[in-house]
Amino acid sequence: MITAGALIETNNVRKAYGSFVALDGVSLSVAAGELVSIVGPNGAGKTTLVNVLTGLLKPTDGVVRFKGRDIAGIGPVKLARRGMARAFQLVHVFPALTVAETIAVAVVSQTGRSLNWFASLRGDSAVRARVREVAEIFGLDTRLAVESRLLSQGEKKLLDIASAFALIPEVILLDEPTSGVSSGDKHAIMRTLVDAARRAGVKAIMLVEHDMDLVAEYSSRIVALQGGKVLADRVPADFFADPEIIAAIVGKRMGKLTRAGG
User: Are 115 and 109 in contact (CB under 8 A)?
Assistant: First the structure.
């Protein structure tokens, strides 16, 4: 059964590795206009869920759908062409590429042509224009010729996310996009990300994040995992009003958090 209005949906998803069960009966949905955060302690199943949602892993049991179509195990490349993208983290894979070349990898891959991104970047005016457009959205247009390894940690994170946005996704999935970034830069990155999503026409964002301040401020809904199961699926006000859930997720009780402007 497909949930009305759902862009992403899992129904009773289970993922087992032999006797170890990483996901156990996970059901959730994400609709247009939502930023849904996935939270949980280490070992809760967050990474496995992300890999199932992005087609890297096929669930042992259950159904995974994107826009009503089964996407179990199809892989991130095919999934990106259907409209869901995940940050590549190409900075870590190809640190010698410039900012322009890194974004061009994503731009060219979306065209379905061979990944001769270097030739495309030099010879294709449409590719160059798209690369500059994406770089400008993320404030990287003055860094196009800089090797990605020379960027600050915050700029590297923005470049990772920019590469995913270059795929023109309807839904984007971000796995701890601010990890390793200073506290002062985290909110700047999130504000840039959310603004870029609006400008690019992204319909929904899924965010895996451990920073509860960011989760509280930017989420429209929070899904908490514990031991591979869904512990809670609530709007932020209800989520942070329950001290038992907070204690289970962060390992301690914490003061009440409020969203900016709410």
Answer: yes
- Residue whose C-alpha is closest to residue 91's, from 159, 9, 190: 159
Rounded-to-integer distance, Cα 245 and Cα 227, Å = 13
Please give the torsion angle defined by the CA atoms of residues 39, 201, 101 and 159, in that order, rounded to the nearest 10 degrees. Answer: -30
| Whole-angstrom distance, CA of residue 125 vs CA of residue 154 | 29
Q: Where are the alpha helices (DSSP H) in 201-242?
A: 212-218, 236-240
Q: Of the candidates 88, 57, 62, which has an alpha carbon nearest to the alpha carbon of residue 173?
A: 88
Tokens read off for 224: 């908490």
Report pLDDT for 260.
41
DSSP-assigned states of every residue in 84-99:
EEE---HHHH-TTSBH
Q: What are phi and psi of 144, to 5 degrees?
A: -60, -35
pTM of the model: 0.85
pLDDT of residue 106: 84
Distance CA 125, CA 8 (A): 35
Q: How many CB atoms lie within 10 A of CB 26?
A: 25
Angle at the Cα of 193 (from 67 to 121), degrees rounded to 5? 85
**How far is Cα 254 from Cα 262, in angstroms, rounded to an integer?**
19
69-70 and 61-66 beta bridge pairing: antiparallel
What is residue 150's DSSP assignment?
A: G
Contacts of 26 (CB under 8 A, 6+ apart): 10, 12, 13, 14, 45, 49, 62, 225, 228, 229, 230
Ranges of the chain with pLDDT below 50: 1-2, 258-262
